[in-house]
Amino acid sequence: SSGIKAEYGEAVVSTQSTGMLFWICYCPEGTTEPIWCPAGYYCPKCVLNSYFPEMIFQTATTLALLCTLGATDILCPPGTFSEGEALSEDDCHLCYPGYYCPEGSRSGAESLCPTGYFCPVGSGDPMSCPAGYYCPYSGMEEPQLCNTGHYCPEGTDVPTPCPAGTYSMTNGAPTVDDCFPCYSGCYCPEGTSEPIWCPAGYYCPNSGMEEPQLCSTGHYCPQGTDVPTPCPAGTYSMTNGAPTVDDCFPCYSGCYCLEGTTEPIWCPAGYYCPNSGMEEPQLCSTGHYCPQGTDVPTP
To answer: Strand 55-58 relative to strand 62-66: parallel, antiparallel, unpaired?
Structure first.
């Protein structure tokens, strides 16, 4: 190749018949002609007293090069990268999604986004998961909406379940204040998204119940019970967890059963209980006597 003596800022023109690209990159002290980078090499950075070429025109036989004083590579700004020397921001590319690229990054996957953060394309720093969202994995491109029964403060990687006795039907709840007390007749285990009806045979007497309570003897509890219903007078129930009134059985003769009776009561001496299903004893008639448990007075 041939060249002409160049001063800073002057163009250097070289005719090349081989079609190979040669770059003018350096001029040692005392150089009268720029030295071409040989084939197979490149000169990425210009320093003081050097020529830096910028291609301005090329044909099959002519390559025009512009020598620029003090040209140097730049650091790509945050959110971008360049795998080689960057001469301007045009040589910088956006950081890959799921990664972040600090200033001067050399790879689009420079730093993996950590859990609790997300990194959309072009991130210079990881972005904290906003309140109401969570970022459970490293390399998240976008946050996930907090699911019902949970809440997610800023920076959440794992949603926090609503405390037992509360519920949240809201997607994207940011704080525990979005978890509301369970209402009576229902119960709410930890992480409940909707109050659960008390099952038959149980009752839930208060708001904020964490678990149902077994229906007591002498009572029955249909689904959704907040206060157990007593067995009707004349019946009894010795069973815990009775779900319906059908579990209240008629009191047998010689006994009586008040409302809510758990076990038949013997008719007291001086009274008699002639039928099953007696609600209260009857006074023994004149000319008769009635020991305890009498169903028919004795003459």
So the answer is: antiparallel
- The pTM score is 0.65
Both tokens assigned to 33: 């002609």
* Residue 283: other Cβ atoms inside 10 A: 10
Name residue, tokens 């206060």. 227
Residues 6+ apart with CB under 8 A from 290: 267, 269, 270, 271, 272, 284, 297, 298
Task: Give the E-state strand segments of 68-197 in sequence order.
Answer: 80-81, 93-94, 99-100, 111-112, 117-118, 127-128, 133-134, 144-145, 150-151, 160-161, 166-167, 180-181, 186-187, 196-197
Cα 213 to Cα 217: distance, rounded to the nearest angstrom: 12
| Burial of residue 298 (number of CB atoms within 10 Å: 0-12, 13-18, 19+) | exposed
pLDDT tens digits, 141-178: 999 999 999 999 999 999 999 999 999 999 999 999 99
